[in-house]
Amino acid sequence: MSDLSEANLGALSAIVDKYRRQPTYLVQVLREVQDALDHIPPAAMAYVASALGVPIGQVEAVTAFYAFFHDRPMGRYRVLISDNITDRMLGSMALVEHMLNRLKLKLGEVSADGVVSVGLTSCTGMCDQGPAMLVNNRTITRLTPRRIDEICELIRAQVPLDDWPSFYFKVDDNIRRADMLLAAQWSPGEALRAATSLGPQGMIHELRLSNLRGRGGAGFTTAVKWEAARNAPGHGPNATRYVVCNADEGEPGTFKDRVLLQSYAGHVFEGMTIAGYAIGASRGFLYLRGEYTYLLQALEKHLADLRKMNLLGRSVCGVEGFDFDIEIHVGAGAYVCGEETALIESLEGKPGRPRIRPPFPVTHGYLGQPTVVNNVETLCKVLEIATHGGARYAGLGTKQSTGTKILSVSGDVDRPGLYEYPFGVRIAQVLEDCGARHPQAVQVSGAAGMCLSEREFGRRIAFEDVPTAGSFMVFGAQRDLFEVARNFTHFFAHESCGFCTPCRVGTTLVSNLMDKIAAGHGTQYEMNELNRLAGVIKGSAHCGLGTASCNAIVDTVQKFRPAYEKRLKAVDFEPAFDLDAALAKAREVTGRDDADAHLAQGMEQH
Ligand SMILES: Cc1cc2nc3c(=O)[nH]c(=O)nc-3n(C[C@H](O)[C@H](O)[C@H](O)COP(=O)(O)O)c2cc1C
Ligand code: SF4
Q: Which sequence ranges form a coiled-coil region, renumbered to this chain (predicted)?
């Protein structure tokens, strides 16, 4: 602690006090510590551990787990450029090179004067207005070489971020097709009042009639989830229940929740409050992904306004005994935290590792209490059901997929952005509406989803055909589907939380194999290995991240095999590096260059 200056000690003390020295706020505290000190030095970790009464090992583990936390200086300006495939298609890698050249830096390196570092990060949720970057967690969209030049100048002159041109940070909604949700006009409290007049059981009954299914990907029936949490008794002397809004939105190509949080926050919060009323909860959390920190201030203001309107707080809407409030937790760059149990771990101030289930969050969630976790879009849909009734809602969409679905469309299209359709819309219709340019494939539901070829464009968006969390990435005829799959394998290897061996080791082996094929050293052996590993990981990974990690490989190998085959060598096995070349240095040192000093191709495998 002696390593901390008086000023820094003062700043840290204010931060821990703001969070009432509660250990569950560890991730929030570390986020603010990093904002104040530019990184989280060991002395700050020790201070936080002592102030929050948690083991130092927990603080170190949390710091190490989240990509946006650093225990050593990473530069006063920490630049992270989005590495999603759509950003790459928009030329992000050339911009990275350009920036590194301008700053005379290597990727991941900190400048000698400690001012700046440049790295890559997974999808920033700006695929409709990329290439994008984060600077100290603030989003900058629409990067061009010129904008990179300007940013380099601002960094060199050490201009505070608040003084950078405000239009750099502008994030557009890009709503291209609005339907039941995006086009509706709601006045604050209207749906909540309808819900309270139905009563908790009545609200859940309407939800059941609506057959609303979760929009976070898995499509679980919302009424079943709410009812289970309502019926779960709670545990211990402080038995209670919680509502969590999953706004982690880390799936590559998905950005619908960003728009809902930016322009429909009232819907999101009201949906959470209705959930709180229906299940008997008094507290809600919105878990906001770290990449969306730019929304935090506006969201906090929104909550304050709702409290003023008595739409949050004590006796909400004048209903005696209905006390409910919402707080926001901000993530720190871990895709796996979107998995609901990992998210709950993160909310509790721990590394975001998925829990073993059962028990499920509806009975044992946040702090072991019954907890409903719902996606942002799901919670918005609740308003329509509360106001107009479940039966009317169920009249739209398909039998198993009622209502509408928002798609985040990006890639080779003229009009990227949000498209809301009734469930059952054909892929071909979406492609036509967004101005797809000679599409050869569509990746639906992100890296974890399905890759559809042209022959499947007649299929429908619906849980009974092509399910989706919302990502819709279009690849034109000129795109290399092998490179698309390779990008996804790197994503999963990077995002694996390391909890279980099949995923931790398997995703790395898969991404190494893809790199080997990309480097021209692939053979049928590597193709067989890809297939074998995909089966092993899918069959034995602990959570959805692992089980979905090879979906894109399996799909692209099956449907776009020439993209792989053109890279394969005829030999059965090719080492990832040239052993004979690697021995050149030894030959030079020993002065030998005879036949015995060389390794013949093909020997190495034995
Ligand atoms: C690796 C992984 C990441 C996930 N990311 C998200 C996410 O960002 N947002 C989300 O709502 N659900 C995500 N989910 C699904 C959640 O675990 C959970 O099913 C969902 O939040 C439930 O809400 P819903 O019933 O409203 O769909 C993810 C699941 C996995 C396995
Ligand atoms: S499957 Fe991967 S992400 Fe999920 S728990 Fe295992 S290691 Fe972690």
A: none
